[in-house]
Design a protein that fits this description.
Layout lengths: L4 E2 L15 H13 L4 E4 L14 E8 L8 H10 L3 H10 L2 E4 L10 E6 H21 L4 H10 L7 H13 L5 E2 H6 L1 H4 L4 H9 L2 H7 L9 H12 L4 H19 L1
Antiparallel strand pairs: 1-6, 2-5, 3-4, 3-5
Helix pairs in contact: 1-4, 1-12, 3-12, 4-6, 6-12, 9-12, 10-11
Length: 257
């Protein structure tokens, strides 16, 4: 396999008056998203007491990863009594090895149900969409080009958030060069000191970074950025999926910083 090298950025200079630390802005915005309130329900006794999503209220199921071991009743009770927002949801996914299942028709009947108001979540995420657009405009995009990119890839404005959050944190950090191919083979050895890449892979996906082609922000072409956006858009994460991804990314960065 040919080595794919991500070079350390050489031009991000905080003394430059044109430099804006969007990673700091997204940290604040992600904190607001993380505090978004959720409702949890135990459906272990009756798997039919959840319903399909409607326009106002949507639901997802938390279940063991790959159909793994069952949660004990004590664990279920603890989750139901302590988890009430996105921050605590993300922590629960990691601590109990759970995964969110968005297609309720195929969900197990013994998981934990999470319910949220779609419109309220969209309102909380709107400032992050606005800043994501501002970031792309500083990269040379016009409002029309952003809209055309979203339309061409069949995505949504929300999909800009995980893309730009990754880009802003890569741009903010100064990395040593390493071989991207090594990440795919020996991640523990290859990226120990590359916290942003590690967290991006876990929460959002390494293929976004692959599409960008370089950690040197000055080398990110519009074509590469559009390709990276397409990677996000094809996942069709939806509001709650995007929210979980960006909060997971931020939580991971905080843990290693």
């Amino acid at each position: 396999m040919a080595a794919f090298i991500l070079m350390a950025p050489s031009c991000t200079d905080e003394s430059d008056p044109t430099f804006t630390d969007y990673s700091g802005k997204f940290k604040v915005l992600t904190n607001s998203i993380g505090n978004f309130k959720l409702k949890f329900k135990d459906i272990s006794e009756n798997g039919l007491n959840y319903r399909l999503s409607n326009d106002q209220t949507q639901q997802l199921i938390l279940a063991p990863v790959d159909g793994g071991g069952e949660l004990s009743q004590a664990d279920r009770n603890h989750i139901l009594s302590t988890v009430d927002n996105l921050n605590s949801l993300v922590a629960t996914l990691e601590n109990y090895n759970l995964e969110p299942i968005y297609n309720l028709q195929g969900a197990p009947s013994n998981g934990l149900l999470v319910e949220f108001n779609t419109n309220e979540l969209l309102n909380v995420m709107a400032p992050a969409v606005h800043e994501a657009k501002n970031y792309l405009k500083r990269k040379g995009f016009s409002e029309l080009e952003i809209d055309e990119m979203i339309s061409h890839e069949g995505g949504a404005e929300l999909d800009l958030i995980p893309l730009v959050s990754t880009m802003a944190n890569v741009e903010r950090s100064n990395f040593t060069s390493f071989h991207f191919s090594d990440i795919l083979i020996t991640p523990a050895l290859a990226i120990t000191s590359q916290d942003v890449f590690n967290c991006g892979m876990a929460a959002i996906g390494a293929d976004i970074l692959w599409a960008l082609g370089s950690s040197n922000a000055s080398k990110w072409s519009k074509k590469a950025i559009k390709k990276a956006f397409g990677v996000v858009a094809k996942r069709a994460l939806g509001p709650i999926g995007v929210a979980i991804a960006v909060v997971s990314f931020s939580t991971c960065l905080a843990a290693v910083s």
